[in-house]
Amino acid sequence: MTSHSVCDHRIIVPVTKPSSRIERRKAELRKEIIDTAFACFAEKGYHATGIADIAGELGIGHGTFYRYFENKRDIIDHVIDDLAARIIESLGTDNAPDAADSLEEYRAQVDRIGDALNRIFLEDQRVAQLLLFQATGIDAELTMRLYGLLDTADSLTAGYLEHGVERGYLRADLDTVNTARAVTGMLLAAILHGIRTPDAGAVDDLSHAIRHLLIDGVRKR
Q1: 11-30 pLDDT, tens digit each
Q2: Residue 91: which residues within 8 A CB-CB, separation 6 or more?
Q3: Fewer Cβ within 10 Å of end Cβ, the chain: N or C?
Q4: Distance between CA atoms of residues 69 and 31, nearest Å
Q5: What CA–CA distance (Å, rounded) separates 12 from 152?
Q6: Each residue of 159-180: pLDDT tens digit?
Q7: What is the largest CA-CA distance in the chain?
Q8: How far apart are the first and last CA of the chain?
């Protein structure tokens, strides 16, 4: 059996939950800074937004901002870290790549992961909009990091498919590498459709169509 640990992907930075009241307040202010920054990015664009714009909207001083973030670019890194950590958290235990031992377990796993990803990507569409439409124009380093996330998604998905082939419930002739890339492409398209038409019914229908392909399109006949 091939074991694919999601913790092996070091692009992820674990996010610890705040424990004390002071830490919770710091976490709340950090989130407020991020939310305000996103609002400013949406209104003015990333490059036209300055620290003064973000701090002014919040009514805080520059010094307070710099206690939480080095610069506005640091905000983007934090958002990516948080997004990636939530995705990895959703893929633990029963949803791990090597957890399913039958087609029915794989089917249930696909449903759970699909529901989790819908919540993560569509609960705050500004994150998806920034990453898909603006981030690659910020700088080359961020572009390469996003490519790294894409590679991580492909690798994780390939792990699920390889395990299914090994356990005998997915087709033996399955091209796991390119099928994984196709799955990533479908997920990105689903996010784009969700941003353009944020209708819960339409999102649900598209999600179920993708899940159908992920099961009946690759299962052993």
Answers
A1: 334 445 556 888 888 889 98
A2: 6, 97, 113, 156
A3: C
A4: 11
A5: 10
A6: 999 999 999 999 999 999 999 9
A7: 64
A8: 21
What's the pLDDT at 12?
37
Query: What DSSP string describes the chain?
Result: -----GGG-TT----PPP-SHHHHHHHHHHHHHHHHHHHHHHHH-TTT--HHHHHHHHT--HHHHHHH-SSHHHHHHHHHHHHHHHHHHHTSGGGSTT---SHHHHHHHHHHHHHHHHHHHHSSHHHHHIIIIIGGGT-HHHHHHHHHHHHHHHHHHHHHHHHHHHHTSB-TT--HHHHHHHHHHHHHHHHHHHHH---HHHHHHHHHHHHHHHHHTTB--
Integer Cα distance of 9 and 11 in angstroms: 6
Whole-number Å distance between alpha carbons of 210 and 111: 10
Long-range pairs for 40-44 at CB < 8 Å and ≥24 separation? 41/126, 41/130, 41/134, 42/126, 42/129
Q: CA–CA separation, 88 vs 91, rounded Å?
A: 5
